[in-house]
Amino acid sequence: MAAPKTRPTDASVEDFLLSVENLERREDARVVVKIMERITGHPPVMWGESIIGFGTYHYKYASGREGDGVLSAVSPRKTALTVYIMAGFKKYPDLMDKLGKHKTGASCLYLKRLSDADPEVLEELILRSVAYMRKLYP
User: Fold this and answer.
1) CATH of the domain at 120
2) Is 114 helix (H, G, I), strand (E, B) or coil?
3) Distance between CA atoms of 72 and 83, rounded to whole angstroms?
4) I want to staple 53 with a disulfide (CB 3.0 to 4.6 A). Which of 47, 74, 77, 130 is the partner?
């Protein structure tokens, strides 16, 4: 079975952040990094070349496939700040309605700028997702 492509690395989070050309996106990422570090209790670690992750969970499916995933993560991409909400969004319609301007993928929350989102709602979304993942994968 193939190993996951995105895994923790020894790369420097600070060096990665300094490489982000868009200054607003870089600073937005720094804010989310502080929030995630406080919520998870884990220091930031580079996952692959462009994802800053916090903590891990171990999954094992009925098929026998198992591995480790990142508990929470953020990536300052060129087009948007991507916040990884591993629990997905269907569980949190109350928060999503109040969050502000955003787009979503399966587990990705895309923000053009952090100021588009209500910071308290974003923090609660991250908090609930982390709590859910910890309960699902103790």
Assistant:
1) 3.90.1150
2) helix
3) 8
4) 47
Coarse DSSP helix, strand, coil percentages of the chain, rounded to the nearest 5 percent: 40, 25, 35
Contact (Cβ atoms closer than 8 angstroms) between residue 133 and residue 87: yes
Residue type, 120: E
Please report the pLDDT score of residue 14 as a whole number: 98
Q: What's the pLDDT at 65?
A: 87
Q: Output phi, psi for 65, to 5 deg.
A: -70, 135
pLDDT tens digits for range 3-36: 556 789 999 999 999 999 999 999 999 999 999 9
Nearest to 85 by CA among 116, 109, 117, 102: 109
Does the global pTM surpass 0.90?
Answer: yes
- DSSP state for residue 8 in the 8-state scheme: B
Task: Give the residue from 72, 8, 76 showing the smallest Cα distance to 46.
Answer: 8
If residue 81 lies in a helix (H) or strand (E), which one and from where to where? Answer: strand 81-84
Q: Give the domain extent around 41.
A: 13-136
Domain assignment present for residue 131? The answer is yes
Cα separation, 95 vs 9, in Å, equals: 32
Q: How many domains does the chain have?
A: 1
